[in-house]
Amino acid sequence: MTVEADQLIHDEARRTSNFLGKVILNKGTLQIRADEIELVEDQEGFQSARAIGKPVLFKQKREGVNEMIEGQSRRLFYASRSETVRLEEAAEMRRVVEGKAADVLQGELIVYDSRKERYEVNREGSPANPQAGNPSGRVRIVIQPKADAQTKAEGKGDAQAKPGSKP
After folding, report:
1. Domain-located, residue 42
2. CA separation for the pair 113, 79 (Å, rounded)
3. The CATH number of the domain where 127 resides is what?
4. Is 117 helix (H, G, I), strand (E, B) or coil?
């Protein structure tokens, strides 16, 4: 893990590090950018991070595919033990394929489990909180069809008969 910041306050006894000012945390394919990140290491060496920003940004490359998961919120919690990212307050997450947003999720709380490639989106039980692009404040997702499904739907798949040929 590498972290860059304008300032660091480290407490060896408590195993905490507070990074302040334009913080960039990198761990493998995960990157978190925030105004402030508190990093805590447990007895077994697993790290957790609490990030605050306007907004906090994160991105992570997905295993085995040419895709990224990107997100933003006002607060973010990362746990290395479970490989989960928790986005809170005005949360948005995108699956990006070849540089283009494929799926977009919005809610007050998004939990992304990178091991299981699973996410959960909630309003967190609070009243509707309208955001840009989501005036109802409810959980919202825009899903784009996968390339293979879209090709078949457009009649470009191998299963389609060619004009003038016998079925």
Report:
1. yes
2. 10
3. 2.60.450.10
4. coil
Residue span of the structural domain in which 11 resides: 2-153
Residue 102 within a domain: yes
- Distance from C-alpha of 34 to C-alpha of 5, rounded to nearest angstrom: 9
User: Does residue 16 fall inside a structural domain?
Assistant: yes
Per-residue pLDDT of the chain (167 residues; tens, 9 = 90+): 999 999 999 999 999 999 999 999 999 999 999 999 999 999 999 999 999 999 999 999 988 888 999 999 999 999 999 999 999 999 999 999 988 888 899 999 999 998 998 989 987 644 455 555 555 667 767 777 776 544 544 555 444 444 454 44
What is the rounded end-to-end Cα distance, in angstroms, of the chain?
57
Residues contacting 105, CB < 8 A, separation 6+:
91, 92, 93, 94, 119, 121, 139, 140, 141
What is the Cα–Cα distance from 95 to 67, expressed in whole angstroms? 7
Q: In sequence order, what are the residues at sequence separation of 6 or more whose Cβ sits closer than 8 angstroms to the Cβ of residue 38?
A: 16, 17, 18, 19, 49, 50, 51
The domain tally of the chain equals 1
pTM of the shown model: 0.77
Residue 13, in any domain of the structure: yes
